[in-house]
């Protein structure tokens, strides 16, 4: 920073990529200079860096900035690898390269592969969004795809290169054997059958338990019923037998009994003459009806 400066200083540096703010960085200030040092640069550090300075003149405060671009040249950077399994697999690699990479090369083990009736190779570039330092940006990236046209088990390698070096990534593929597919299908079918049977058994057990519970509840209700007795009210017009003053039976009256005549006694006394001295003749009575 140069000029007639009363008071001056530096704010934090700003890092942007394609106009998107990424982060602030603190520079090393030395008098009227600010120096920004980035150690261990990678492709994420590419972009524009702005130095923000200020100074005052009297009561006025002025700001200014200066921007510079940082380009990180390196070997291609692999962002992601993917395997798409349909009837036959497709291997895909997405990478970032600056400067641009050479044409990718695919190998089966150590044999170079080219477009043929057995495999297809396709290289494209496109803009995608990805994160750097927690901020999403859009950047041009490259992809290379190897698609099988027939079953070719083995190890496949793609080599990406530019003037700064090369990088490789490997895909392993082994087709599913029919026996394995059959075994897997059998396992799935067995699992479904077991699930259905288990669900059926559980449903039957719940139904039986519900029926037993209902039966026990009804039995409990029957066992807990209390007998209720109702007494007919006493007829007030019917007097009690002991309350009557005129009983329905005839009371005995004096003179209804008579002594048995001496004649009858004498008739019996002939047999008891010998005992006459020992026994007193008893009086017999005949009840008149």
Automatic annotation (TrEMBL):
Alphabetized UniProt keyword annotations: Membrane, Transmembrane, Transmembrane helix
Stretches for region Disordered: 247-280
Residue ranges crossing the lipid bilayer per the database entry: 181-206
Gene3D superfamilies reported for this sequence: Immunoglobulins
InterPro entries per record: Ig-like_dom_sf, Ig-like_fold
Keyword check for Membrane: yes
Domain of life: Eukaryota
Protein's recorded name: Ig-like domain-containing protein
Phylogenetic classification of the source organism: Eukaryota, Metazoa, Spiralia, Lophotrochozoa, Mollusca
């Amino acid at each position: 920073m140069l000029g007639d400066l009363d008071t001056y200083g530096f704010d934090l540096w700003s890092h942007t990529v394609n106009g998107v703010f990424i982060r602030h960085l603190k520079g090393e200030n030395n008098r009227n200079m600010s120096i920004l040092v980035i150690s261990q640069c990678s492709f994420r550090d590419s972009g524009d860096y702005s130095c923000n300075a200020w100074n005052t003149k009297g009561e006025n405060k002025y700001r200014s900035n200066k921007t510079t671009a940082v380009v990180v040249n390196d070997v291609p950077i692999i962002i992601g690898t993917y395997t798409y399994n349909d009837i036959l697999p497709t291997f895909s690699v997405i990478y970032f390269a600056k400067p641009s990479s050479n044409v990718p090369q695919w190998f089966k083990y150590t044999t170079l592969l080219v477009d043929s009736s057995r495999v297809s190779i396709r290289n494209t570039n496109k803009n995608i969004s990805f994160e750097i330092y927690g901020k999403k940006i859009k950047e041009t990236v490259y992809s290379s795809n190897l698609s099988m046209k027939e079953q070719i088990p083995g190890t496949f390698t793609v080599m990406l290169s530019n003037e700064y070096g090369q990088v490789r990534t490997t895909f392993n593929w082994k087709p599913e054997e029919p026996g394995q597919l059959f075994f897997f299908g059998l396992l799935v079918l067995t699992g479904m059958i077991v699930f259905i049977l288990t669900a059926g058994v559980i449903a039957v057990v719940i139904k039986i338990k519900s029926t037993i519970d209902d039966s026990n509840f009804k039995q409990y209700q029957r066992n807990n019923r209390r007998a209720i007795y109702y007494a007919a009210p006493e007829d007030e017009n019917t007097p009690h037998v002991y309350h009557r003053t005129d009983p329905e039976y005839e009371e005995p009256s004096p003179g209804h009994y008579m002594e048995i005549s001496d004649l009858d006694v004498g008739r019996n006394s002939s047999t008891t003459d010998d005992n006459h001295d020992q026994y007193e003749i008893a009086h017999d009575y005949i009840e008149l009806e």
